[in-house]
Amino acid sequence: MTTVAEWRDVSRCYGALRAVADVSLALRAGEVTALVGHNGAGKTTLIKLLLGLIRPSAGAVRVLGLDPAGRAGARARQALGFVPENVAFHGAMTALELMAFYARLKNCAPARNLALLERVGLAEAARRRVATYSKGMRQRLGMAQALIGAPRLLLFDEPTSGLDPASRAEVYATIDRLRADGATVLVSTHALAEIERHVDRVAIMHRGRLLALGALAELQRGSALPLRLRVCLRPGGAARVAAVLPPGVSCTPVGDDTTLELVLAPAGKMALLRTLVNLGDAVEDLDWTTPGLEALHRQLVAASAVPEARA
């Protein structure tokens, strides 16, 4: 698969502070990658390096094989579309006027501007002044201007920061449309639970280090985090279930005696299901809870802290 951009063994220091440490990460064509971690994880530093705004203290950064902070930086940045955490536009202008302005800056014809606004769900508001836009609409306008010139890679830095639930859903819908269209996108976010359904791969950062990289399903399989199963039973069924549970499965009543929560290792999933099926009509319903990105992040952060505690 074609690599659009990459960080190779990259570190970035500010005096004694190491904001990014030995990160190697490639962004592949046609994929949406989430760069996740809490504040201070190094996500924005990695984006600034990719934009050529800062240079690495060690290692190399490349966009389409070019150094974005070097002599070919202008050519490298032409391949990028960027939406910062807080977009700021002149409120007196309409969306179409702003798009025409940015198209001129990028030396692009404005013919596709309305189509780009439609792509992010703003076609009906294209002739409204931006001062009347909600923050979520301004964020999607930022995405539309980032799409001008058909950049090879789109960078979104905390695109849902400060947005209400409806606006966040609209931003994720835009990311989904870009994903369906085969765009290459990097989304930096600390909204771990929300982003996992909208990306192909996840890069988990903590204190400047890359802790894990891969598809969420792959990371979940490798984590060995416990699974949770809520079992709804007919009256009297709890005792029957407790009597036949395989080894290693913990059982906790929830509310009354018709609901149990079972916790087990992933390797025991099929054995437990076969056991429950053999109970026949004693079991009315099953509801699996698979550990998500939040749980995976907690486990990796805790594991990374162990060597520090021993030092």
Overall description:
This protein is α/β, with parallel strands linked by helices. α4 crosses α5 and α5 runs parallel beside α6. A hairpin with a 5-residue loop joins β11 and β12. It has a 6-stranded mixed β-sheet, sandwiched between helices. It is globular. The C terminus is likely disordered. 32% of the residues are buried. It is built from 11 helices and 13 strands.
Descriptive keywords:
single chain; alpha/beta; four-stranded antiparallel β-sheet; 11 helices; 13 strands; 35% helix; globular; disordered C terminus
Concise structural overview:
The chain is an alpha/beta fold and 311 residues long. Helix content is 35%, strand content 27%.
What is the CA–CA distance across the termini?
40 Å
Based on secondary structure, the structural category is alpha/beta
Which regions have little confidence, pLDDT < 50, spanning 5+ residues?
307-311
Largest sheet: 6 strands, mixed
The best one-word shape is: globular
Rg (CA only) = 24 Å
Output the helix-strand order.
EEEHEHEHHHEHEHEEHEHEEHEH
Helix fraction?
25-40%
User: What share of the residues does DSSP label as strand, in percent?
Assistant: 25-35%
**Count of individual beta strands:** 13
Q: Strands of the biggest beta sheet: in what spatial order?
A: 5-6-7-3-8-9
Total number of helices: 11
The averaged pLDDT comes out at 90
Layout of secondary structure:
Blueprint: E1 3-14, E2 17-28, E3 32-36, H1 43-51, E4 58-63, H2 73-78, E5 80-83, H3 95-105, H4 113-119, H5 135-146, E6 153-157, H6 165-180, E7 185-189, H7 192-195, E8 201-206, E9 209-214, H8 216-223, E10 227-233, H9 237-244, E11 250-253, E12 259-264, H10 269-277, E13 283-289, H11 293-310
Parallel strand pairs: 3-7, 3-8, 5-6, 6-7
Antiparallel strand pairs: 1-2, 1-4, 8-9, 10-12, 10-13, 11-12
